[in-house]
Amino acid sequence: MSRIAPLQPPYPPEIQGHFDRIMRGAPPLVLFRTIATSARAWEKFRAGSLLDRGPLTLREREIAIMRTCARTACEYEWGVHVAAFAAAAHLTDEQVRATVLEKADAPCWSAAEQALIAAVDALHDRVTLSDGEFAALSAHYDEAKILEVLLLCGFYRTVSYLANGLALPREETAARFPKA
Questions:
Q1: From CA 141, how far away is CA 17, in angstroms rounded?
Q2: What is the pLDDT of residue 50?
């Protein structure tokens, strides 16, 4: 059980409207229902504007998110993204597994994806990119995409803090971390 009880239906009309826009007909996630218990927290969370499509492809976006969640040991959010987006992002089972268990240079990734994963790892480990890591990323991604990667990593680190710190129960349809 979550350390803060999530909202239960029926939801206030404004909150229901937000859930409908974000979830597109699916039941709202425990994460959203828990954050929405605080109007301020919910507004700040939604103001991050990273729940929309940005300059990254769906595949690039999901690789960055899944790797960030794997590195922060956030099985809750990693599992949600695997269940909801891995197939649409054309991630193979081997690649999904690699987001948790392999190094950035795993052979299942393209050179661009290896640079992306290395950047996610560097941000997790050192909260910065070396000149070489930035150059490797820049060889494959333009400035708008690089900014989006930095924002996504920070946003999903925050999501990981929320999910892990609140001990959110895993969503029924979410994937589990693979075993080594």
A1: 35
A2: 74
Kindly state the average pLDDT of the residues 108-113.
98
Cα 168 to Cα 3, 8, 95: the distances in Å are 7, 15, 25
Whether 138 has a pLDDT exceeding 80, the answer reads: yes
What would the pLDDT profile of 83-103 be if each residue is shown by its tens digit? 999 999 999 999 999 999 999
Q: In whole angstroms, give the CA distance from residue 135 to residue 19.
A: 39
Instruction: Decide: 79 and 171 in contact? Cβ < 8 Å.
Output: yes
Answer for the pair 121, 104: CB distance below 8 angstroms, yes or no. Answer: yes
pLDDT tens digits, one per residue of 44-68: 999 887 767 799 999 999 999 999 9
pTM score, two decimals?
0.96
How many DSSP H helices and E strands does the chain contain?
9, 0
Closest CA to 69 of 81, 78, 59, 60: 78
In order of 15, 96, 105, 114, the CA distances from 89 in angstroms are 29, 11, 20, 16
Buried b (16+ CB within 10 A) or exposed e, 153-163: bebbbebbebb
State how far the alpha carbon of 3 is from the alpha carbons of 50, 72, 151, 157, in Å: 25, 19, 27, 19
Reduced to 3 states (helix: H, G, I; strand: E, B; else coil), residue 168 is coil
| Amino acid sitting at position 83 | A
